[in-house]
Amino acid sequence: MNPRDPHARRLPATPGRLRLLRPKTVTVIGAGIAGLSAATILAERGAEVTILESGPRLGGRVSAWPVDDDRTMSRGFHAFFRQYYNLRDLLSRADPGLDRLRPIPDYPLTRRGGPTDSFASIPRTPPFNLLGFVLTSPTFPLRGLAQVDLAAAVELIDVDFPTSFSRYDGESAAAFLDRLRFPDQARHLALEVFARSFFADPEDFSAGELVAMFHTYFAGSAEGLLFDVPDDDYDTALWAPLGRYLQDLGVRIETRTAAETIARSPHGWSVETSAGVVESDALVLAADPAGTRRLIATAESQTDGAVTGPHGAGSRENGMPDWFARVGGQRNAPPFAVLRLWFAEAVSPDRPAFLGTSGFDLLDNISVLERFEVGAGQWAEDHAGSVVELHAYALTDLPPDDELVERLLADLYEVYPETRQSAILHRELLVESDCGLTDTRPWSDRPGVSTPLPGLVLAGDHIRCELPVALMERAATTGYLAANELLGAWRVEGTPIWSPPPQGLLRRGALGRLRGMKGSGR
């Protein structure tokens, strides 16, 4: 990896041998980004890896699948930001030049009844990007600076992770935004969008996570807010090639195989699946949040709060019941919806590939897929039409499917009026509620990669990570960390981890030195 940001942090793996001297077996539950990341590093170091995936394909919540008439469907648009160092490292296994990722020229955000913000022309490097945003943004008039609470605003650049995550324990993103006192439109477009992109309502989303995302994408990283997208559906562009790479390494991939229980065995871990029992020395649990809680509960019922095995004994005195309670107490985010539409006529050629929206009834963003996906582009060319995808996050009051579609279409017709007159040739609606919720409870209470159960590690975008990374990158990062923890116990060197700068502008460089001078009274 060669990050553009000179302040990006490289965390080396614990030194050790390059490969295992004796074979070790590892079961990985879940073939999403986290599970694939862990499996890749473990297999490259000589472990014998079996991946168990309950679904029919790889990719987890970033999967895609065929539907009729040479069309594809997915769980929704994902932006591959330049800050996603570890995810991009993973993808480079099957695509060394990352040629399957296509840059999107802008990240426009529009507020209902208001102007549209563009990030294409502002500088990428802090603090010039902040200055550029304030000076050029139509949603942030200079007179709006007078009402901003400067002490709260300084918090956005006075961060030091992971400590800053805990600074906001008990505070919601909405409460933080209230005391920040940004102008209303700027509040929605510059900050609230981060909460909703986590499938969460700002009232129920961690302020610490909000601040971390503002730091990662804007105030603390020189990679900017622009991003790449795969040049075709996720399976074709990303996961099928990575799956072949893993199989070449000897990884056994078992799809349509659900893990039902996990338990300690005399020599490691036993996983009872819908197809039989899988035994291994170690276990990476990279399932979705609810699946992780369910499987940990099966382990708890069999250990009764105590651990026995070849690595020694645990007891109730070591905090085991508390750990089980903290895992079981995690929550899922509200449902989200993805509506993909195949229109008989093309949308206006000046429509961007992606548009973030705010202030509408349900709509959170619009994608025009033929702008970047080969398959969608071919369909659009063959039918002289367009493939348009709509997202709605944090559906706390989930309406019936017909009403959901009707309301999303009403929002679309308001933003892209030309679509109102175009016939819809095909429609696919997906509603899911399987994402983790990063709520206001103490950051330290969230389960991390390490566990008190020997040989068991956790990975996923719902797993606590000390680095300021989000969702897809958190999944890849925790997958790498999970593999590193197992390898370190076997005295094998893992993989280095990359992170956006963990410190904000006030804690590094010239601004950091100025802060230090003020703090010392000079």
**DSSP strand count:** 22
Provide the number of structural domains: 3
- Share of β-strand residues: 15-25%
Largest sheet: 7 strands, mixed
- Give the uncertain stretches in residue-range form: 305-317, 510-522
CATH homologous superfamily annotation of the largest domain:
FAD/NAD(P)-binding domain
Determine and state the CATH class of the largest domain.
Answer: Alpha Beta
User: What name does the CATH topology of the largest domain carry?
Assistant: FAD/NAD(P)-binding domain
Mean pLDDT: 90
Oligomer: single chain
Description of the molecule:
The chain is of the alpha+beta class and 522 residues long. It has three domains: 17-61 and 235-331 and 439-492, FAD/NAD(P)-binding domain; 109-225, no CATH class; 335-432, Polyamine Oxidase, Chain A, domain 2 (Alpha-Beta Complex). It has helices at residues 33-44, 85-91, 128-136, 150-155, 163-167, 173-180, 184-197, 207-219, 234-248, 289-303, 320-328, 374-383, 401-415, 471-489, 509-519; strands at residues 9-11, 25-29, 48-52, 64-67, 71-74, 80-81, 101-103, 109-111, 116-117, 227-230, 252-254, 259-265, 268-273, 276-280, 282-285, 336-343, 354-358, 365-368, 386-392, 424-432, 456-458, 497-499. It has a seven-stranded mixed β-sheet. Strands 11-3-2-15-21 form a five-stranded parallel β-sheet, with helices on one face. A hairpin with a 6-residue loop joins strand 17 and strand 18 (365-368). Helix 2 (85-91) packs across helix 14 (471-489). The radius of gyration is 23 Å and the shape is globular. It starts with 8 loop residues before the first strand and ends with a helix.
